[in-house]
Amino acid sequence: MKDIKNIGEKLITISTLLLCISIPTSIFLDNLAAGIGLLGLLILLISKEKDWPSIKPFFLLLIPELVSIIINKHLSKFDIDIKLVPYFSVYKSFKSEKIVKVGIILLSISTTLLCFSILFEAFTWINIKKYFSYLFNNQIYLYYLTHHGILGLLGYLLFWCYFIFLNLKNFQKTHNHIYLYFILSYLGFLVAGFFENNFLDAEVKFATMFFLGFNYLTYKASQSFGGSI
To answer: Whole-angstrom Cα distance, residue 176 to residue 131?
Structure first.
């Protein structure tokens, strides 16, 4: 249990240090840091960690929601979700003087880079942050990592691993090459994701879901016919 707790603490430390870089520069690391921190916090909860900051003040944030319900008759968007993670991760990780010093250094460096980018844009009319935005939004894995955190990326990868495993299992059972074709097509799609944000295009997603539906139909049919399909 102690080893599990150490893993959780390390993940929380990584989350905090990533936030030290992303908060001044806003280079799409916030959700990645929050995802790593959330995973670390969950591990600490499993390991029965008892030292946590108070969450009582956050109940005050429910007051605007209640007012919205009373006045507007509907619930407004309650947008704190994983944005609460830094509250816990900083509390846990900054107990170490060494981590505080590293955090201050990273904050200084990232703030300096922000100032440089502002001056660079002022003299050249080139927005460096737009290049980072293009990079992170046009590569599917970086997109999931930066917008949904490490848990979101794991969810996306596990989704495809499920279908690859399903087809591999059925190929071993039936020796029907159609399942190999499905696997190869999914692997090709995953490789293409390194070069473009293909899964978020509406037409691509429609085509993908169409293909996955046909794939699952063949799988269920093989089950019904005792592996003859």
So the answer is: 46
